[in-house]
What does this fold into?
Amino acid sequence: MHKRVDQSETEHRHRVEICKIGQQMYERGYVIACEGNLSVRLDADRILVTPSGACKGDLAPQDLLIVDLGGAVTCGTGQPSSEMQMHLLYYRSRPDVRAVCHGHPPAATGFAVAGRALEEAILPEVVISLGKVPLAPYGTPGTWELCAGLEPLVFKHDAILLENHGVVTSGKDLITAYYHMETVERFACVLQTAESLGGPHLLSRVEVHKLIKARSRYGVLGREDNVQLLLTCESGEDRVTLKRQERESFLEESLRRNRIRRNGNGT
It folds into this structure.
């Protein structure tokens, strides 16, 4: 009896949290109208998920549905989110994932529509928390085609861009999954601004190594996708090296001219 009460209280807490996060996503413009979906793993066999056709800014706890790992509704009325299969892919593939968040934040979705992953090492916070954010190939929303493009990436990444679609994030709990969504959107906004100002200055391979080693200090376990991220950072390191070489050449040339000037003046 005590265990049943605890389960009921936990479920209610998750229902309230989903509604709260849904409202935040709506207010921040990460979803509009009936876009997006959220889910939380209640236990080994049950998933709490937002219903299809509902505005995430107007959800009430009783609106949410419970489904099994096959996607069948076991509690509640209506249909689960049309993206239920995408959520189930995470839960079947990764026992560590306890929540999934899907939305269409404008800047990040802009990169997805442009067919561009967010892989540049420009922000320490992103390197520590997410590594890189890859791009999954386009698949019709709500179909297994979408899942097929996601499947190779789900094991290594907590945030993925969906080509011509949006962003999906996961986490140990719903607030972590949502924070990953915020981080992706900030990453996209900063990179967009940097590119408009002439291009971002990438962190060097050495600096990225330092950040990766610091993950445990910040309480971030992270997926190990860092090899690819480091390869991406080579251009940043090369750029730093090139600038250093240019600066040294400039100094050498300045010293040479000064020597000529002094000799010419008889000094």
